[in-house]
Amino acid sequence: MSRKTVTVTLLLVFISIGLFATTPESWVNSSFVYDIPYKSGLTLSSGQEDAIGYDFSWFAFPRNSDIGLETKFAMSFSLDANPAFLRLFLFTGPTFTSVLAGGVTGFLSVGPFYALTGTDTATSILEQQLGAAVDLGARFRFAGNEIWDFALILGTFADLAFLHIVDETRVSGLSGSILPYIGFSFGSAFNWRYTRYYPRYSVYSPVLYF
To answer: Which positions, given as ranges, span the membrane (predicted)?
Structure first.
């Protein structure tokens, strides 16, 4: 690994830590996903077989707000498919949350996504996808206090790609996928002066919502 790559990686890590620390409320989620693909009118595209993968997402909320921003990075792969493929995608968009029950928060995010897929063939096909996506799920808190919590997260991410570019050539057709996921979520309000505005962090003592 080159020195430039290490420097850029460390810079991104420090920026992420800084944003997480300065945002009044943040969720960091780590999940396993199952990729169920769909395609129509495409001869070259990922989405030929189901795949497994990993999902990392970050939710940030301004002070005293149930509306925030979600940023997601995920990957799915199928090594035993014919041909084998690896898919990476990025998603960002506004998220809307609502308290469903004591310790349970639902969320809905909508926004654009970009995917990059590599297919292991004789010519190593590289495909880019651009479209829209929706992320719907819920957090189930089971530990925490006024400034942090730990939760189980369940959800489904669905995307629909309108633009496909295969080896710099545009290909017509539609493709999409549904990715149910399950994992763990860590939430924190590092700015302790604002914790009184975040009663949702009081998981057990007491549970207050407004």
So the answer is: 84-108, 147-166, 178-194
| Burial classification of residue 132, based on how many CB atoms lie within 10 Å of its CB (0-12 exposed, 13-18 middle, 19 or more buried) | middle
Q: Is the peptide bond before 206 cis (omega within 30 degrees of 0)?
A: yes
Which CATH topology does 3-201 take?
A: Porin (2.40.160)
Closest by CA to 87, choosing from 16, 34, 162, 156, is 34
- In whole angstroms, give the CA distance from residue 8 to residue 23: 22
**Alpha-carbon 106 to chain mean position:** 15
Most confident of 75-89, 129-143, 193-207: 129-143
Contact (Cβ atoms closer than 8 angstroms) between residue 129 and residue 117: yes
In the beta sheet, which residues pair with residue 6? none
Vertex 209, ends 204 and 210: CA angle to 5°?
165
Distance between CA atoms of 55 and 33, rounded to whole angstroms?
6
Closest CA to 51 of 71, 30, 33, 70: 33
The number of angstroms, rounded, from the C-alpha of 81 to the middle of its chain's C-alpha atoms is 24
What is the chain's mean pLDDT, rounded?
76
Domain limits of the chain?
A: 3-201
Phi/psi-derived region of residue 168, left when phi > 0, alpha when psi is between -120 and 50, beta in every other case: left
Residue 23 pLDDT grade (very low, low, confident, very high; cuts 50, 70, 90): low
